Amino acid sequence: MTPLIIMAALAMAAALIVRRKQAFNFRWQPTRHTWAALAAGLAAFLLSLLLLLLPHGSWPGRVVTFVFIWAGLGFALPWAWTLMVERAGPSAMGLTRERWKSSLVLNLALGAMMVGQTLSQADPSRIDPVLLGRGMFVLLTGNLFELFLYYGFIHLRLEKAFGIIPAILVTSAVYVLWHAGTQLPLEADPWQGALKLFFVGILYQSVFSLTRNLLAIWPFFVGAGVMHDFIVNVKAMDHMSVLVPWAALTVGLMAVCGLVLSRLNRRVRPG
Residue 87 and residue 100: Cα distance in Å, rounded? Predict the structure, then answer.
């Protein structure tokens, strides 16, 4: 836990130094967009709690996770709100060309560091490459849900409403909540797991805050990070690998939703 805390502290310090002109500008300017973003995070938490009431591995639980949480709250809602309600473009969700080069370099460097850490703590010869590939697909799909909801949607709106530091800390706390019925039951000590996830959140949210570009963290940094967690800490890659069909369904739903929203957005904004 100590190395993680140090990394999180360094990342947050880096974000505050790089953005020192705005770092300590606190404010209270919430709008309906702020509350909509927080409500989406709360909805993910409540649906996660629902998973605790459903039989483990049951199809209703899979529907809640992959359809309602990942595809619905992680993609459909944030993008629909951004495009149709805010009348904003992809940059309002962190998909932007601004600072893309520095974001990519940061992503690759931190991702390589995380992969090196995983290889130093796990025996690569004991990892089934097919199992690893299937697990990576599932976990990267889950990363997309987190990417759009917790970074593009919640973080950017909290920063606009309250400032840099509140955005990092509050989004990290909201991020922990959705794991209540998913990852935390797999942890040996759920409370310690929640604390660990909070510092993971601070680490990734701080790196994202450096450039406000999703390319700073996805796919390499967050992908390598979640792989490290499931290979070294939780040791549940076999559990993840059997979920490939559900992850594929999620990607398909995201794609269809994206096409529908794109067509609706062109009708609303014909120019």
Answer: 23
* Integer Rg of the chain from CA: 18
Count CA atoms within 13 Å of residue 145 on its CB side. 26
In angstroms, the CA 170 to CA 38 distance is 10
Q: What percent of the chain has pLDDT over 90?
A: 75
Q: How far apart are the first and last CA of the chain?
A: 52
Distance CA 25, CA 161 (A): 11
Whether the per-residue pLDDT at 1 is higher than 80: the answer is no
Q: Is the pTM of this model over 0.90?
A: yes
Q: At what angle do helices 164-177 and 190-211 cross, to 10 degrees?
A: 140
Residue that has been written with the tokens 């070294």 in this structure: 232
**Tens digits of residue pLDDT in 90-140:** 999 999 999 999 999 999 999 999 999 888 887 767 777 888 888 889 989
- Are 91 and 153 spatial neighbours (Cβ–Cβ below 8 Å)? no
Residue among 116, 139, 119 at smallest CA distance from 218: 139
